[in-house]
Amino acid sequence: MKDRRDYATEQIERLLAMKDRVEALGWLTGAPPNIYRNVGEMTHNQAVALVRRLYKWGVPEVIAVNIGASPDGSIESTDDLIAVLPSDLVARKRVITWNNKRSYKMGYEAPTEDHGQSHLLVWFD
To answer: What is the pLDDT of residues 47-63, one digit of tens each?
Structure first.
């Protein structure tokens, strides 16, 4: 029987294999003037601030995956970010604890534990 950690790893690997995978901050800030980009239900500015905060906390890379677009292409959005976890234990703990608190507020009660994984799914519902 697979444990939760195996499912999370498989889900992250599946998302990382998607062809629309891009570095999140560059994707958010690099849109042409006629395209609005965001994450989850956040505004564009909130999404940019979130990704910058993760980088400030020591995350070496934030990846946007599973990007969708409105029918006319004027809005692009994702509910899935993947953070490459830092090797520094204090930074890792900060990012994982933040993500657990955020997930709990969304109604998910199973916290992510640090078991040496390289990536963390930052998912928005």
So the answer is: 999 999 999 999 999 99
Cα of 48 vs its chain's centroid, Å: 12
Specify the 3-state DSSP secondary structure of 62.
Answer: strand
pLDDT band at 4 (very low <50, low <70, confident <90, very high): low
What are the backbone angles phi and psi of residue 40, rounded to the nearest 5°? Answer: 55, -135
61-65 vs 80-84, strand pairing mode: antiparallel
d(CA 69, CA 47): 16
Q: What is the pTM of this model?
A: 0.90
Q: Is the dihedral of CA 110, 19, 33, 49 positive or negative?
A: positive
Q: In whole angstroms, give the CA distance from residue 98 to residue 95.
A: 5
What does the alpha-carbon distance between residue 75 and residue 38 come to, in Å, rounded to a whole number?
Answer: 8
